[in-house]
Design a protein that fits this description.
- This protein is of the alpha+beta class.
- Helices cover 31% and strands 28% of the residues.
- The protein is built from three helices and three strands, in the order αβαββα.
- Strands 1-3-2 form a three-stranded antiparallel beta sheet.
- The radius of gyration is 12 Å and the shape is globular.
- The N and C termini lie far apart (26 Å).
- 11% of the residues are buried.
Length: 71
Amino acid sequence: LGDAVTLAMGLCDLARGGQTLLSKSVVDHLRQPPAGVSFETIPPLNVKGLAAAQDVCLLLRGGEDARTRML
């Protein structure tokens, strides 16, 4: 499997119940977040199968506060 699939699987494994984690590169490719959604950059995470820590964002819906949702 390629690094992108390894990263996606790793982020799914690291996310807590109800969380959605995305790679920073995916977020950077969005021209504009969908309505009612924002992204909060969180500290880099170590993902099994990848050598370097990965830049990650937490998806926030509506008025969620990232401080209460962080890993």
